[in-house]
Amino acid sequence: MQEHNIHRRTYSVAFIIIGVILFAFGIAFGLAVPALKLEKVIFDMPWIIAGIGAIVAIYGIAQLIRSESLGNVEFSRKTARTFLTNNAIILALLLLVVVICIIEPRFMQFRVLLDILTMSSTKLIIALGICFTLLIAGTDLSAGRMVGLAAVISCSMLQTPDYGNRFYPNLPQIPVPIPIILAILACMVFGVLNGFLVAKYDMHPFIATLATQVIIYGVTSLYFDMPPNNSQPIGGIRPDFSKLGLTKLFDRFSVLIPIALFITAIIWFVLNKTVFGKNVYAIGGNREAAVVSGVNVFKTIMGIFILASLLYGIGGVLEAARTAGATNQYGMGYELDAIAACVVGGVSLNGGVGKVGGIISGVLIFTVIQYGLQFINVSPMWQQVFKGVIIAVAVAIDLSKYRKK
After folding, report:
1. Measured in whole angstroms, how far is the alpha carbon of residue 401 from the centre of its chain?
2. How far is CA 38 from the centre of its chain?
3. Backbone phi, then psi, for 301, in 5-degree steps?
4. How many CB atoms lie within 10 A of CB 245?
5. Neighbours of 33 (CB within 10 A)
6. Which of 151, 264, 298, 307 has the smallest CB count inside 10 Å?
7. From CA 372, how far away is CA 96, in angstroms rounded?
8. Closest Cα to residue 186, out of 225, 134, 214, 145?
9. Cα distances (angstroms) measured from residue 233 to each of 153, 158, 167, 327
10. Which of 4-13, 219-228, 304-313, 366-375 shows the lowest mean pLDDT across its residues?
11. CA nearest 237: which of 149, 186, 176, 184?
């Protein structure tokens, strides 16, 4: 393949035209479906095509607006190989979705898409927290246990007065924000501990957060075992709390989706538009150079683990509200799913590389795999095999790119 340079304006207009064509086709097809009596065959596929067309057109418009600053688009064997390498997981996912739709056409419904987005919401919040630790070439194994701690603390104080096995039998009905704040603050205490061990003693985050993980699980279990609860699952959750995770906007959209989008926007701003975010990338890229350039490594690392614990706490509270209950086993393994989603989304284990958009795609990839394979009744054991293969491939791609650099 010879190298070709295409003017950014031409490139942008091409995407706009393709997007408009897809959008128009989807709308026209969708309006014709009732007359053709294909509702039970293709379901919401025409409207999904129209949505894809709108996204493609918007991308083209964004490229057109920035055409002067972005320069020409290069097409060559090298760029094609780079594109395929960087997007191999996403392309494989698209192929999987096509296969699932062929096997089970009911997968082509907006209801399915909304279910996937709802399932992804709290996972995304947790992954956004753990990405900060990965960006400095670290990790956080205590994330899942913090989710469980937040869930148990919030649920224990927000039970209905008439529930038979109340955690606090004599506790009056208190405003919902108070237990939520206490649960998040409890997580942040352990975030401070993680940050202090890593920043003060230069302890590897794997060891520091492994120790904290065990401590948190012990603390949560001791709290969960307090009489009169005695390790019984916490139920009877107040409706004013559970509606945080169960409310449907316009009778369709889970309230968790806009909450996750709002938090995602904040994290994007922190990483891309603040000094703190630039310092995070600097430490992950080259810690010694960051120190020389005046970055306060101690404060930055402390901030990273505290902010991460804040997000874990929020994720735990929302998960508890969504499921209307909690046990001390809540959140087990969440940190591994979050790490995997970040790595698949392009966050380098070597630090200094990663974008919020990639993390979103990583979380969606794993949710689509889980939901889609369940949808066509694939064995949970095979689902674990697929997930493991994807993680291995993603890490291999990441390491190969690092070696080339």
Report:
1. 23
2. 35
3. -65, -40
4. 22
5. 17
6. 298
7. 9
8. 145
9. 12, 14, 10, 5
10. 4-13
11. 176
Do residues 108 and 26 make contact, with C-beta atoms less than 8 angstroms apart? Answer: no
Q: With beta carbons less than 8 A apart as the criterion, state whether 260 and 125 touch.
A: yes
Q: Is 68 exposed, middle or buried (0-12, 13-18, 19+ CB in 10 A)?
A: exposed
Say yes or no to pLDDT of 76 above 90.
Answer: no
Strands 253-254 and 248-249: antiparallel
3-state secondary structure of 234: strand
Measure CA 206 to chain center. Answer: 21
Rounded CA-CA distance 217/102 in Å is: 44
DSSP codes of every residue in 124-191: HHHHHHHHHHHHTT---TTHHHHHHHHHHHHHHT-B-TT-TT-SSTTPPP--THHHHHHHHHHHHHHH
Among 47-51, 81-85, 192-196, the minimum mean pLDDT is found in 81-85
Q: How many residues does this entry show for the chain?
A: 405
Q: What residues are paired with 5 via a beta bridge?
A: 74
Amino acid letter at 101?
A: C
Please tell me which residue, 8 or 226, carries the higher pLDDT value. 226
Q: Do 190 and 142 form a contact (C-beta atoms < 8 A)?
A: yes
State the Cα angle at 40 between 38 and 46, rounded to 5°.
Answer: 60
Beta-carbon contacts of 52 under 8 Å, excluding residues fewer than 6 positions away, are 22, 26
- Check if the beta carbon of residue 115 is closer than 8 Å to that of residue 152: no
Residue 71 backbone dihedrals phi, psi, to 5 degrees: 80, -170
Cα–Cα dist 226/229, whole Å: 6
* Model confidence band, residue 3 (pLDDT cutoffs 50, 70, 90): low
pTM recorded for the entire structure: 0.91
**What 3-state class would DSSP assign to 252?**
coil
